[in-house]
Amino acid sequence: MSLRSFLEEMKKGREVVRVRDQVSPRFEVSSIMKAFNGGPVLFFENVGGYNTRVVANICGTRRRICSALRVSPENLYKKLISAWRSPISPKIVKEGPVKEVVEKASLSRIPVLTHFEKDAGPYITSAIVSARSPDGKIENVSIHRLMILDDTHVAVRLVPRHLFKLWETAKEEKKDLEVAIAIGLHPAVLLAASSPAPFGVSEFGIANALLGNKMRLIKCETVGAYAPAEAEIILEGVMSTTEETMEGPLVDIIGTYDIQRCQPIIELVGMMHREDYLYQALLPSGAEHKLLMGLPRETMIWEAVTGVVPIVKAVNLSSGGGGWLHAIISIEKQTDGDGKNALLAAFGAHPSLKHAVVVDADIDVFDLEEVEW
Ligand code: MN
């Protein structure tokens, strides 16, 4: 189960648009991604200055995500919750497709995109970063934006969550943190890396549960970190606990520029990739960004509201609210207090929520005109 196998399925389903004209990784690819936002997968065959093809908008629609997880839209939340509750450790293998080429790291050979005019520069936006605690007992996998500094260094945005915690532990022990950075992944892996699993639960186990125990991990060559054996590229890195640099600005989920902050530097000490690897792009503030961040939150809202009213039909963290701030929830109302209780549960489940609407089950939560009516 790889990005490639998923792309093959999407080609058969006529979900892929090929871009044959030469396009620049600076603004041109991202502007086409934006024009096709929420639409088909894009396959850029000729990226100026590179031999590498770029794929984009992979998780750009709910339908594609459901199809990747082999689940109907009605059962998506249940499937996610079951994987969160019952992760399965993936098998570790010695060889895998990502090991076809093992070489020195060199970012200048990868067509990393510059997305928007006032962004600090080229950014890797679709990578998962995985690391283990020094005793190897705890593993964490999460998505982080990575700002290119030079051929072998990136700055990483560390929100104070799980990877930050591992980094702080390394810092206390006066060590650096070894990480694997994987790019070009099956949607299940990206969705698992965005899940709210508690600290101590490896998101690789969640990905493997979503993929029906078909996922395999490979150990990096030079660092003590693991990554999917079916990835397109793995960068091996050492995250400094002493050296930081200014990171940002970059467009964030709601489409405004995030501020600059002092953030850790990762030195890339190795790289492995498939011979003809694909580079996966992800547009900041695009539909894919919103779905990957929002779907796990919708699931938490769905679960919490299900606890107070009998039937919750659907939840939509709407695109106009950045896929994050506004929720529409449809319920089968049994008694008069159900609407109010649904709202309270939703706000409790997703603390960032600013606005929520509860409608009857006959209203389509994805049709904003119906919701307003
Ligand atoms: Mn985690």
Describe the structure.
Helix content is 26%, strand content 28%. The chain has 10 helices and 19 strands. Helix 4 packs across helix 7 (203-210) and helix 4 (76-85) crosses helix 8 (287-306). With 373 residues, the protein is an alpha+beta fold. It is globular, with a radius of gyration of 20 Å. The chain starts with a helix and ends with a helix. The protein has helices spanning 3-12, 28-35, 62-68, 76-85, 162-172, 187-193, 203-210, 287-306, 338-349, 368-372; strands at 16-19, 41-44, 53-56, 91-93, 101-103, 123-124, 128-132, 139-143, 146-150, 153-156, 177-183, 216-219, 226-228, 233-247, 261-273, 278-280, 311-317, 326-332, 355-360. The strands form 4 sheets. Strands 5, 6, 7, 8, 9, 10, 11, 14 and 15 form a 9-stranded antiparallel β-sheet that branches. It binds manganese (II) ion (MN). The site of manganese (II) ion (MN) has 6 residues, from strand 8.
Summarize the structure.
The protein is α+β, with helices and mostly antiparallel strands and 373 residues long. The protein contains ten helices and 19 strands.
Provide the structure class: alpha+beta
* Uncertain residue ranges: none
Strand content: 25-35%
Give the helix level as a range of percent. 25-40%
Task: Report the radius of gyration as a whole number of Å.
Answer: 20 Å
Distance between the termini: 43 Å
Secondary-structure element string: HEHEEHHEEEEEEEHEHHEEEEEHEEHEH
